[in-house]
Amino acid sequence: MNRAARRRLERAGLSKDDLAIIKRATVKESVDMYSAAVLLVLRDNWGFGKVRLQRFLGQVNTLFEDIHSGYLSLEDCKKVLSEECGINLR
């Protein structure tokens, strides 16, 4: 959500706290949907079972924590994927 959209919502009576709650809920839902999709692809197409799916999700969560803690940046991840795998994310 850009600044103009936030201002419109604030003028409509939503506080910054309300907007923060909405943003957190939206981000959580997006992450949950993406995680479910990735896990289903790994299960359906690559034969991952419960243990490997849990291990994979734990490693992804650790990576998220490292990014959130500042040990690693999203740009670092994108650079490695681009340089080493030829995958360019927007």
Structure description:
With 90 residues, the protein is mainly α. It folds into two domains: 1-46; 49-90, no CATH class. The protein has helices at residues 3-11, 16-46, 50-69, 74-85. It starts with a helix and ends in a 5-residue tail after the last helix. The mean pLDDT is 90.
Q: How is this structure best summarized?
A:
The chain has four helices and no strands.
**Count of separate structural domains:** 2
* Largest sheet features: none
Give me the oligomer status.
single chain
Helical fraction? over 70%
Strand tally is 0
The overall average pLDDT, rounded, is: 90
Class from secondary-structure proportions: mainly alpha
What is the helix tally? Answer: 4
Helix and strand element order: HHHH
Distance between the termini: 17 Å
Supply Rg. Answer: 17 Å
Q: Spans of 5+ residues with little confidence (pLDDT < 50)?
A: none
Instruction: Give the CA-based shape.
Output: extended
The portion of residues forming beta strands comes to under 5%
